[in-house]
Amino acid sequence: MKEIIASRRTILLTSLIFLALVLWNAYSSVQLHKSYQHALMKSVTDSVLADYQEYLAQLRTDVIHFQGQNYTQIAALANKGPLASKEEYMQLLKLMKNQFSDLRLFAIIDNNAQGVLKHITGDFLDDCKDEIRTTVDVGSQEHLFLHRSSNSIHYDLLEPLNIPGKQGWYFFVAFNTTVFESLLIKYQLPHQELFLLRTDLIGKIELSTTTTTDEHIAGIEMSAEEVQMFSFVKEIPGTRWQLAIRQEPNYQSSILVKSVIKALILWLFASAIILAFYLFQRQRARSHYAIKKALEFNATHDALTGLMNRATFEQSLTNFISQAKDNPTHGVVLLVDIDQFQLINNGYGYAVGDSVLNFLSIELKRYLPENVACSRLGNDEFAILVPDLSFEHAQACANKLKQFINDLSYVTEESLIKLTASIGVLHIDTDQISRERIFNSLAQAVRIAKEKGRNRAQLYQSDDQALIQHAQEMSVIKDIDAALNENRFMLYRQHINALQGDINIPKYEVLVRLKSRQDEIIPPDHFIPACEKFGLITKLDRWVIEATCKSIADTGDNGHYSINLSGITLADKDIKEFVSNMFEKYHINPNRIGFEITETYAITHLESATKFIGQMSEMGCEFSLDDFGSGLSSFSYLQQLPVHHIKIDGSFIKDICNNRLNQVFVETMHKLAKEMGKDCIAEFVEDKATQEHLIELGIEFAQGYYHHRPEKWFEY
C-alpha cells in the first residue's frame, strides 16, 4: 500500500513538473513570437518611411521637371495672373494630370503668399493658406501635412517658380492621398496597424490602415494613452507627420491564450503516459529553446548517422587516454569496418548505401550502453570506445558485437541485405598512449581480420605475427620519442678512405646509434625503419644535423662530414631553412657538410630531390647518391641529378674479386660517373684484395671495415 501511495505521489509530482515545463514552453513561445513581431514592426516602419521619403523626393523632382518642360505655358499664366483664361489653365492642367495620376489642381503663388489664379482655382482652404504662408516665409516647404475639406483630403507640394522676375513665387500642386494610403496598406502585415500621425497635434490621425476614407476626411483623434501603445513612432523629415505602428489590441492576449490551451492539452495527454514518456518529453521541450545546442550537435556529430564525428571521437579518446594513464586496466577501442560495403553501393546505389549506414547506426545506438562512445569515422568505418571494459573481456565483447551485426537485416523493395564486419580490438595501455598509434594499431588489426577471411574480430594483442611485429614497432617508436627527449641518441662516424692519392681534409660518414636506458647500443636497422614508417624520421634527421654541427663546433674538427637524409626529410619544405639556421647557429662552413640520399628516393622524386640538391650545392654542400645500383639503376637519371659522388652499393663490392658481372658493372659505373665528373665511393670494403681491385679499376674512395670501423663521435 505504501508503495502505491509513493508511486502516486511520484506521478503527481512528475505531472506537476511537466505542467510547469509545458507552460514555460508556451510562455517562451509567446516571448519569442513577441520578439519576432517587434523586429518585424521595426522593419515595416523603416520600409514605409523610406518609401514615403523616396516618393515625395521623386514627386518634387517630377514637378520641377514638369516646370522645365512646360516653361512657356507656366510663364504665360504667371505673367498674365488674373488676366489668364480658364482655357489656358485647363489645357495645362490636362497635361499635368496625364503625368500625375493623383493630381487635384495646381496654382501659382506670388511672394505675398497669394494665389494669382484664384479667379480660376477658387480660394484656398485655411490649412492650405497656413502651409503656403509658412513656406513663403521660411523659403522652403518643411512642414508638409494633409488638408481636409468637407468632402476630400489632400496634400500640397510647393516648389520655387523658375521664371525670371518671379523671385519668391511658388508653383503650387495639390495631390490626393491615394499613394500614401496604398503604401500603408502595402506594408501592413497580419495583426498590425499602421498610422500617419500629426507631430504638432498629439493623437491626431492623418491616415491609418484601420480607418475608412470618410473617417480620414473627418479626422480622428486618439488619447495620449492610446498613443503610448505604439511599438514604433518615427518622424518623416520635412513634414508634420509621424509614422506609427502597433499590433492589434487583442493579438498578444490571443497568442498567449492559444499557447496556454495547447500546453494544457499536451499536459493532459502526456499525463496518461507520464512514467514512460516524461524524460523524452522534457528533452523535446528543452530542444525547442536550444538552437545553439542544435548547432553544436551538428558540429560534433555525423550528418548522415547522428553518431559523433571523427573529431569528437578523437577528442573523447584523448580525454580518456589522459585518464587511462592513472588507471590503465580498463578501456577498449573497437574499429568496425563493414565488409565489402562498396558492393552494396555499386549494386543498390549510394542512396540505399546511406540508408544501410543510418540503419546500422540506429541499431548500434540501441545495442551499446549509454556510457559507450560510438562514432562514424567515415565511409563504412565505425569506432567504439568502451571505457569500463577490461582486456580479459574484450574479445568476447567484440564477438558479440560481430554476431549482432550478422543478425541485422536491411530490407529493400527487392531484396534483403545482410551485413558482416571485420573488427579490430585494442586495449588501451601505456604502449598505445596516443590516439594516432591507437588508430594505426586498430587499422593493422582490421587488415589482419580481412586477410583471414573477413567477418571476424581480431584482438591486437594476439599471437598473430604481423600484429606482434607492429606491437614491437610501437614499442620502438615509444622508446624513440623518449630517447629524443632524453638525448639518448649518439653519433658515430666512419672514415671514407681516398684510394687515388691523398686528400687534405679527412672525409667521414655520420652514423646514428640509439642508447637504451640500460646503456646498450642499438644499431640503426632496429629503429630507422620504424621511424620512417611512423613519421619520426624527419625529427631524427634534424637531431642528427644539429648534433653534427654542434660536434664540429665544440671539437674544432676539420673533417668533412656526410649526413644521411631520408626521402621524407628531403621532401620537407622547411628543411633548407633548418639546415641554414644550424650553419648560422654553430658557425659551420657549408663546405664541411655533405648529404647522402638514396638512389630510389632521388629517382622517384626527381623534381624535389633536384631542387634541394641545387639549393644546398649553391651554399657549398656536397651530395652523394647512396646505395647506387640497388634500386632503379637507371644511368640516364644521373645526368639529371647534380650529385658530386656515387656510392656503389655494397652488394656489388663484397665479392667483386670473384664475380665477373660485378666487376663489369662497377667498371662501367665508374667510367660513366667519370665522364659526368662524379667520383665513386665503394661501400662494404672489408679486405685488402677488394681494395686493391678497386684501386685498379680507378675507384676514388672506399668505405668499410677494412679501413675503419665506425667509432663513437658525439654524445650529449
TrEMBL record:
Keyword presence, rRNA-binding: no
Transmembrane segments: 260-280
Keyword Lipoprotein: no
Domain EAL: from-to ranges: 473-716
CDD domains, alphabetized: EAL (cd01948), GGDEF (cd01949)
Domain of life the protein comes from: Bacteria
Residue ranges of domain GGDEF in the record: 329-462
Pfam families found in the cross-reference section: EAL (PF00563), GGDEF (PF00990)
UniProt-listed InterPro entries: Cyclic-di-GMP_PDE-like, EAL_dom, EAL_sf, GGDEF_dom, Nucleotide_cyclase, Rev_trsase/Diguanyl_cyclase
GO molecular function terms attached to this record: cyclic-guanylate-specific phosphodiesterase activity
UniProt entry keywords in alphabetical sequence: Membrane, Transmembrane, Transmembrane helix
PANTHER family xrefs: CYCLIC DI-GMP PHOSPHODIESTERASE PDEB (PTHR33121:SF23), CYCLIC DI-GMP PHOSPHODIESTERASE PDEF (PTHR33121)
Name of the featured protein: EAL domain-containing protein
Organism field: Thalassotalea algicola
